[in-house]
């Protein structure tokens, strides 16, 4: 699936940037593809892009309205249908990472057909996948795992793949979610794969490769999430990671939206992920800890990272603020 660029990012009326993580990810990693934003009354997010109506977006070169929000449950709010139809009527394609398919909404399907434009459902698997084989594959794999959802697994994987490439290392970012797929142009929407085939899809995502090549795999969910632990486990087993990177948001104490589920200590999170990863790769190890420190004062970042590193005895970094260089130094010293 190749979604026509450039993009107009639809933010709806969401209240915060966490709810607009798809749009934020595209802005940070595919900035040249983003020509503007489309917001409804009451929207609490401003990406700093021009607010464009659909005609102006077309004049600015936009070809696709990307639904840039990820509401709980992945549904399209009823009051979003009218502006989406208006975008289609104006000649824009529409791309969505929702679980609900665009064409399943009659008004959207009719508008797309009438205008002769495309509907792109990023979260619909483009292939069928076999049950996992468990076979050891050539090449190296690094999987991002999380203490929770929305802690920076995608940003961490993109940063590591970029930093590896800058060092001349062979590396590929492997996308497992809608935003990553839009950025990379390919991938597997792993949380939309039928449960029995998640591990098989992860194997297909990171096939045999050169011995010194790293597949840097975007994680999904968390083993500690009461709703999304299943996808995290299937991805962990199918990826067969040689290395994991634990991703966490500084200051987060419980699973977002689930106040009765506290996040365990980071050491416990590392331990459980490694114990379960070793079912399919007995040599799995933790390469480091990625901390999203955006909730901390900038002056507190360095001390926080040092403290976590000293506590766990491994590199700790903020992907956006510091890059992954310290972790890669440690990794290459250990495995070459």
From TrEMBL:
Ranges where the D-glutamate N-acetyltransferase-like N-terminal domain occurs: 42-125
D-glutamate N-acetyltransferase-like C-terminal domain span: 131-327
SUPFAM superfamilies in alphabetical order: P-loop containing nucleoside triphosphate hydrolases
Entry protein name: DUF1611 domain-containing protein
Cited NCBIfam families: DgcN
PANTHER family: DUF1611 DOMAIN-CONTAINING PROTEIN, GLL3100 PROTEIN
InterPro entries linked: DgcN-like, DgcN-like_C, DgcN-like_N, P-loop_NTPase
């Amino acid at each position: 699936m190749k979604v026509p660029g450039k993009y107009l990012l639809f933010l709806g009326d969401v209240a915060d940037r966490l709810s607009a993580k798809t749009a934020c990810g595209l802005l940070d990693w595919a900035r040249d593809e983003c020509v503007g934003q489309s917001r409804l009354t009451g929207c609490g997010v401003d990406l700093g892009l021009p607010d464009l109506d659909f005609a102006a977006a077309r004049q600015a070169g936009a070809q696709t309205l990307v639904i840039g929000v990820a509401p709980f449950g992945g549904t399209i709010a009823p009051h979003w249908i009218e502006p989406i139809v208006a975008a289609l009527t104006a000649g824009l394609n529409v791309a969505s990472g929702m679980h609900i398919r665009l064409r399943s909404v009659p008004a959207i399907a009719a508008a797309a057909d009438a205008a002769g434009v495309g509907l792109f459902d990023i979260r619909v698997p483009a292939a069928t996948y076999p049950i996992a084989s468990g076979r050891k594959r050539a090449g190296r794999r690094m999987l991002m795992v999380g203490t929770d959802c929305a802690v920076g697994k995608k940003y961490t994987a993109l940063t590591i793949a970029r930093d590896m490439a800058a060092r001349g290392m062979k590396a590929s970012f492997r996308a497992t979610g809608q935003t990553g797929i839009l950025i990379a142009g390919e991938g597997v929407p792993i949380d939309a794969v039928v449960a029995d085939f998640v591990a098989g899809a992860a194997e297909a995502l990171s096939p045999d490769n050169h011995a010194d090549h790293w597949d840097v795999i975007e994680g999904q969910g968390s083993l500690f999430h009461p709703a999304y632990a299943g996808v995290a486990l299937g991805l962990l087993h199918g990826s067969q990671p040689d290395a994991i990177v634990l991703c966490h948001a500084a200051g987060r104490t419980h699973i977002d939206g689930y106040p009765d589920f506290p996040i365990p200590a980071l050491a416990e999170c590392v331990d459980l992920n490694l114990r379960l990863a070793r079912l399919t790769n007995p040599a799995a190890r933790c390469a480091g800890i990625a901390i999203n420190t955006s909730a901390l004062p900038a002056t507190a970042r360095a001390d926080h990272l040092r403290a976590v590193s000293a506590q766990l005895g491994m590199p700790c970094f903020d992907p956006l603020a510091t890059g992954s260089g310290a972790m890669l130094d440690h990794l290459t010293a250990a495995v070459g």
